[in-house]
Amino acid sequence: MRSLVFLVLLGAAFALDDDKIVGGYECTPHSQPWQVSLYSGYHFCGGSLISEYWVVSAAHCYMSRLEVRLGEHNIAVNEGSEQFISSEKVIYHPNHDYWTLDSDIMLIKLSKPATLNQYVQPVALPSGCAADGTMCRVTGWGNTMSSTADSNKLQCLEIPILSDRDCNNSYPGMITNTMFCAGYLEGGKDSCQVEDDNIYRCCTDINSILIITSCYVCLLQGDSGGPVVCNGQLQGIVSWGYGCAEKNHPGVYGKVCMFSQWIADTMKNN
Q1: Is 43 labeled as catalytic in the residue annotation?
Q2: Segment 156-181 mean pLDDT
């Protein structure tokens, strides 16, 4: 397993793919009011507002301190709709595994409540797990295959949830019950988790035995942590994948419906 993960990482590092939603389109401004940007001097991951105090993202996006930026569409300009709120607590799932990305979910408690308005609204948590074939929308900031796209403007993409069989066939031995695949097996459309601006810095500046794990975190930042919304409910968290929009390698997402109790308990106890 670890050898396979290392080969995937090595290929991704040399490919230097941009972080992007491939084959998507610019979202209608502020049509995804739960989408947030996680910021630490730069946008490094996405997330989803689920209440006035709480945000869901991917555990591999973990930083002990970060800023949550809400009400964004174009992250390069001040649009007057933004709210910048620092984190009070960042809590990743106790079963999260950096090697396998099992339980790739974390909760961020805001230091003050978000002001809910037309630009900032929470997304509903799932009432159950979505069925195979359900069409969902994944969103994030990044380049697309269109040369005219503005990488600073929020991108949208509609993708179907794939069957467990197709998911396991795409990534043999790598899919756990906290993950699902979504996208198109023929390729061409996907969310992507690589942020090429940080690959070289991350993977050459680490002086620790955890170099492979730590580089994995860097390689998976970008659209990572962002929402997959199906029928108005947050069903997925952008997590990982091999390349971007490659044939037979769909995106892999954290399965939010598996964490309903943990989310409820964590919010109640913190």
Answers
A1: no
A2: 96
